[in-house]
Design a protein that fits this description.
It is a single chain. The protein is of the alpha/beta class. It contains six helices and nine strands. The chain has helices at 34-42, 74-85, 103-111, 140-148, 154-159, 182-191, and strands at 7-12, 28-29, 32-33, 48-52, 64-66, 90-95, 119-124, 127-136, 163-167. A seven-stranded mixed β-sheet has the order 5-4-1-6-8-7-9, with helices on both faces. β7 (119-124) and β8 (127-136) form a beta hairpin. α2 packs across α4 (140-148). The longest helix has 12 residues, at 74-85. It is globular.
Amino acid sequence: MKYKKHITGIILAGGKSSRMGTDKGFLILNNKPFVQYSIDALKPLVDEVIIVSDNSDYDVFGLKRIIDITKNAGPVSGIYSGLEASKTELNLILSCDIPLITSEVLKQLINAVDENSEIIQVESNSKTMPLIALYKRPIKDKFKSFLEQDERRLRVAIKACNYKNVVLDEVYQNTTVNVNTKEELKQIKDAYND
């Protein structure tokens, strides 16, 4: 499969980060902001990277930034907003708090594309990861109707779609670690010798 062909990368950076107390996309690991890791993993595989965030500080990355269409509605709104702005059927969607993510993992999602699956998500350490996933653009209409019904739980929206999981080999499982608290940030820095 030819990468970069008709795929958009969408990074969700609109979360409240209430547990961290600061915007997680700008946390630093090895002198690099977290969001840059998501950008770097996507860049070799996509035509365009879009950041979904109301925070204009993200403009420093020189990428297209769009704002959440529905405010304070979590990732369902972020995904819908990103898909609405996308021009491609296939979209790799990542959160901004997974600094160990790699292009290798994302290639596995692209390679798993088939006719029927609307969402292809990573499964790592026995957990599904809907924010490391490939979404087909037409499902934005289902997500929109969930938002209109005030349904904000991403897992509910995913269950309403045709989805499948790509189970990662053990060697890739640390790539999906997301950082939500100061303690988790310290652990990841200790593990990777910032």
